[in-house]
Design brief:
single chain, mainly alpha, 0% strand, transmembrane, membrane
Amino acid sequence: MNTLTTPEWIATIAFALILALIAFRVIRGMPNMAGDITAFRKRTLVWTQVALVLTVLQLNFKAGDWRFGIILGLIVLFTGSIWLAARHYDLRRPEVVESAEQDEGKE
């Protein structure tokens, strides 16, 4: 019960690869997002916090069984990476808008 079998490892790795692929596509598509990225960043932060709380609860109350804790941990990494990328893009974006406004003012 405490060790993961080979099929469980394979399923976990496949799940991690699927999440990594989805995160890569979402992060690469952020510059093309229409609208305000701040709302997206706030939603991903909420989901990261929810996943983190569930992971901690799972690890505290289900001693010895790592299966669900591993999946929740992967979800924390997934949502956290998207939130961090959205935060980075949101912080970098006002500089681009301000520089474009300054360029228009010079003309």
